[in-house]
Specification:
5-stranded mixed barrel, 14 helices, N Utilization Substance Protein A, Chain:P, domain 4, alpha/beta, OB fold (Dihydrolipoamide Acetyltransferase, E2P), 4-stranded mixed beta sheet
Length: about 375
């Protein structure tokens, strides 16, 4: 090694961002390991590379003791003071022991260390780049599929879409362009491992922000998302500006904005509803497209009973209970759905508000002090599986 080698390391520092001192320390450690392996595995030694010339030297190290038990590791105080009278017990005496044919081994070792450090630096750069993008959306090209895992090319690295993060019914082929959501970036010995998802609610959120400028700018606020990937999603949005319709802004002219997202998610249905501070209104809108007659809430238990027309019951519950389930996730409330005829069977007094509107409307009755005798736990369990 010489000054040209040092210049090469300085160039690497500029290009790869690896400090010269870090490389030299790594080379010294590798040279020491090579020396012990080939020449003196039982003795203490130190390798030093001159930072100005690039010359390297190997020094043996022996501790100054009163009685020598192993002359490869220890030296007597008397012999140490023959070398330098300033030595005392416990000091370390160094002697140069650089082997004559060590240059070839040193050059090979230095090359291996530099190559390894360059790889590590490149991996760290990639890790830092993607670690800062966790929770973001990225576009890549499907490279290959192994054991149902989809590997997506991202330039210098690749992301993994595991089976659990793939959308039901979606097929992936090499060469397909795919938008995914970065769930996690892990640091491994083989480099960064980037785990992505097509089912995460965050993917829907990011797609909305890309399509709806008002969301990105903060004019509209996305309050909550409930998603069953590949089938249906519900989104609650809100705007502090009374002049801005949050639902209309997300839907877009002729439905173009939301349609672009639906196309990206391969036909997944998306319901966009207006968030309201009043839980009864929010719960009612969350069951869209079903029409709601009235909502009764128990705020302490976060339970809501919703009454719908008979012909709207199946729509409110949804196929296999999907609409009701998503509404519950969206609002954070347990929702019990009843049709008007069911209410009449359970509570006969309900009929007087159907037959005699002059007695008052149903919603006023439910929100008043003269409530129907009902506990929210009575029949919520009936709808838990819906």
């Amino acid at each position: 090694m010489n000054s040209e080698f040092l210049e090469a390391l300085k160039d690497l520092e500029k290009e790869k961002g690896i400090a010269v001192d870090v490389l030299l320390e790594a080379i010294e450690a590798a040279l020491l390991s090579a020396y012990k392996r080939n020449f003196g595995s039982l003795q203490n030694a130190r390798v030093h590379i001159d930072r100005n010339t690039g010359d390297f030297k190997v020094y043996s190290q022996r501790t100054v003791v009163e009685e020598v038990e192993d002359d490869r590791l220890e030296i007597s105080l008397e012999d140490a003071r023959k070398i330098d009278p300033r030595f005392n017990l416990g000091d370390v005496v160094e002697n140069e022991v650089t082997p004559r044919n060590f240059g070839r081994i040193a050059a090979q070792t230095a090359k291996q260390v530099v190559v390894q450090r360059i790889r590590e630096a490149e991996r760290n750069i990639i890790f830092e780049e993607f670690a800062n993008r966790e929770g973001d959306i990225l576009t890549g090209i499907v490279q290959r599929i192994e054991n149902k895992n989809v590997f997506i090319e991202l330039g210098k690295t690749e992301a993994i879409l595991t089976p659990s993060e793939q959308m039901p019914g979606e097929e992936y082929r090499p060469g397909d362009r795919l938008k995914t959501y970065i769930v996690e970036v892990r640091k491994t010995t083989k480099g960064p491992q980037i785990l992505v998802s097509r089912t995460h609610p965050g993917l829907l959120k990011r797609l909305l922000e890309m399509e709806v400028p008002e969301l990105y700018e903060g004019v509209i606020e996305l309050k909550s998302i409930a998603r069953e990937a590949g089938y249906r999603s519900k989104i609650a949005v809100y705007s502090k500006d009374e002049n801005v319709d949050p639902v209309g802004a997300c839907v877009g002219p002729k439905g173009m904005r939301v349609q672009n997202i639906v196309s990206e998610l391969n036909g997944e249905k998306i319901d966009i509803v207006k968030w309201d501070q009043d839980p009864s209104k929010f719960v009612a809108s969350s069951l869209s497209p079903a029409k709601v007659v009235a909502v009764e809430v128990w705020e302490d238990e976060k339970v809501a009973r919703v009454i719908v027309p008979d012909y709207q019951l199946s729509l409110a519950i949804g196929k296999e209970g999907q609409n009701a389930r998503l509404a519950a996730k969206l609002t954070g409330w347990k929702i019990d759905i009843k049709s008007e005829s069911q209410m009449a069977e359970i509570y006969p007094e309900y009929n007087q508000y159907e037959e005699n509107p002059e007695d008052g409307d149903l919603e006023s009755y439910l929100s008043g002090t003269d409530e129907l005798e009902y506990s929210p736990d009575d029949d919520l369990a009936k709808n838990d599986d819906k």
